[in-house]
UniProtKB/TrEMBL annotation:
Gene3D superfamilies: Leucine Aminopeptidase, subunit E, domain 1 (3.40.220.10)
Cleaved signal peptide residues: none
GO biological processes: peptidyl-glutamate ADP-deribosylation
Annotated coiled-coil segments of the chain: none
Alphabetical list of SMART domains matching this protein: A1pp
Residue span(s) of domain Macro: 1-164
InterPro entries with a match to the protein in the record: ADP-ribose_metab_enzymes, Macro_dom, Macro_dom-like
Native organism: Streptomyces noursei
Domain of life of the organism encoding this protein: Bacteria
Protein name listed in UniProt: Appr-1-p processing protein
Catalytic activity: an N-(ADP-alpha-D-ribosyl)-thymidine in DNA + H2O = a thymidine in DNA + ADP-D-ribose
Length: 164
């Protein structure tokens, strides 16, 4: 897989499992969490089957939210292996579709992806993810993809999106 930079850069799409990222070097798995402290449906279950640390860290982060930055747009980086990180991005309000629409919050995902880019550049990491915000959060890929292109690809961070 050739790295692309600048104007030719694009998201790489692969069939596969985002919890088993492809390629060499440091990798960061990015996914979207809710702002309620709930962890129990969707992609997080696949993460928890592989590593207990991201769930434990997220639940602690939420529990201690009065004393930290937990909230929409915040990101928690959890090391799960020497060259592998998980980024818990708080990008959805609640967990259910209701009178205020679907849970996804695009502005929170955009803010979180900016923080992911900073950390990925610091670590020299590539970013790997499912179609974030588009499962249980109810988002549309046509709205998320440009955020990834702008916030990550535009800053020179290689991104692979996995379709299971």
């Amino acid at each position: 897989m050739a790295e692309k930079t600048g104007i030719d850069a694009a998201i790489t799409y692969l069939k596969g499992d985002a919890t088993a990222p492809q390629g060499k070097g440091v990798k960061m798995i990015v996914h979207v969490c809710n702002d309620l402290g709930g962890w129990g449906k969707g992609f997080v279950l696949a993460l928890s089957r592989r590593w207990p640390e991201p769930e434990r860290a997220y639940r602690r982060w939420h529990r201690e939210r009065a004393r930290n930055d937990f909230g929409l747009g915040a990101v928690q980086f959890v090391s799960v292996d020497e060259h592998l990180w998980v980024a818990n991005v708080v990008g959805q309000r609640g967990t259910r579709t209701g009178s205020k629409g679907v849970p996804v919050r695009y502005e929170a995902i955009a803010a979180g992806l900016g923080r992911v880019a900073d950390k990925a550049l610091e670590l020299g990491a590539s970013v790997h993810m499912p179609r974030i915000g588009c499962g249980l959060a109810g988002g549309k890929w046509s709205r998320v993809e440009p955020l990834i292109t702008q916030r990550l690809i535009g800053r020179g961070v290689a991104v692979t999106v996995y379709d299971h």
